[in-house]
Amino acid sequence: MKYFWLSLLTAVAFAGCQNKAERLPFLGRHDYIETENGTDTVYHTIKPFAFVDQDSTPVTNQTFAGKIYVADFFFTSCPTICPVMKTQMLRVYEAYADSSEVLFLSHTIDPEYDDVARLHDYAARLGVNSQKWHFVTGDKEKIYAMAQTSYYVGVRDAGTGPEGFQHSGAFILIDDKGRIRGLYNGTEQTSVDKLIVDIKILLNEING
Amino acid sequence: MGKLLLPALLIFGFACGPGHNKATYLALPASDQAKFEKYLILGKEVYTRKCQNCHQGNGQGLRGLIPPLAGADFLQHNQHRIPCLLKFGTNDPITVNNRVYAPQMPHHPLTNLELAEVITYINNSWGNEYGFVTVKQVDARLQDCSR
């Protein structure tokens, strides 16, 4: 019984401090620079990129300027976790369907097969708006480099057909200044529930 | 109370095996009823491992990408083709409930027994009543896949 109260108290205490800190963390490596009034922290940001989406429209960092977005990596012929990830991403998409400040960016890791036409067909079959959810293709090396050095997610082409492509099921939450504010498991309902809540927290932070 | 609960649960459990309310079950000879139930249980296990990612736990599929199995007219009317389709994957677009899907189902290296189990499971889940499929039927249907 004693332990019950103890753990309840601890739980309340932790819940309390979570409420106070209504701010998401900054993920990635930070740099510190000297300024006239001490040091400033420079957070990791998404590097410049240029891809094309399912409408052949160029998609760059500018597309997301002042917006927050959720990014992931997938490929259209994926036999394993992609349908699960897309089901989960659709939940997030529906939750923020009316918010012009929230966008989505899905990168194919099989750009040779997933050309604009294939991505167009895929997005149409999902029935999503191309202004809000961009499915992008482009130079394979550049896509893989973005995954590894900007979004910190693992992708790999082991070269044996659809089963050869390997990628993490991560969803990455990026803020209006290109900083990573959360990493989620896109194959897990509870993790994606948290993403839906975190987007709200981030919107509050941005809109004051 | 606790003493009553256990027997009550046991009785309840037996009376409500997975297939008991199915027309298919009731129409089977008693000797096949237990087998049918076993297929439903093992078929669900195969489904969870091999099919659920795409067709979803509720058999609804994923919008225009993955067809539903629940209430699927294709599944209902093409029973003879299903084993080949699962074993070798699909090369042609399939129309399910008036919607055309892309030929993107991968092949599944399942044994004939697993095929019979999983087909029996999808045939009798989510309100479907499409019948019991035996290993013998799967064997026979796999004989003419090229057609």
- SSE order of chain A, as H and E? HEEEEEHEHEHEEEEH
Strand order of the largest sheet of chain A: 7-6-5-10-11
Number of helical segments with 4 or more residues of chain B: 8
How many beta-strand runs of chain B? 2
CATH architecture label name of chain B: Orthogonal Bundle
| Largest sheet entry of chain A | 5 strands, mixed
What is the domain total for the residues of chain B? 1
Write the CATH fold name of chain A: Glutaredoxin
Assembly type of the chains comes to heterodimer
CATH architecture of chain A: 3-Layer(aba) Sandwich
Task: Please give the most extensive interface between any two protein chains, plus how many residues each contributes.
Answer: A-B, 17 and 11 residues
How far the N terminus sits from the C terminus of chain A, by CA atoms, comes to 44 Å
What is the name of the CATH superfamily of chain B?
A: Cytochrome c-like domain
Overall average pLDDT of chain A: 87
Class from secondary-structure proportions of chain B:
mainly alpha
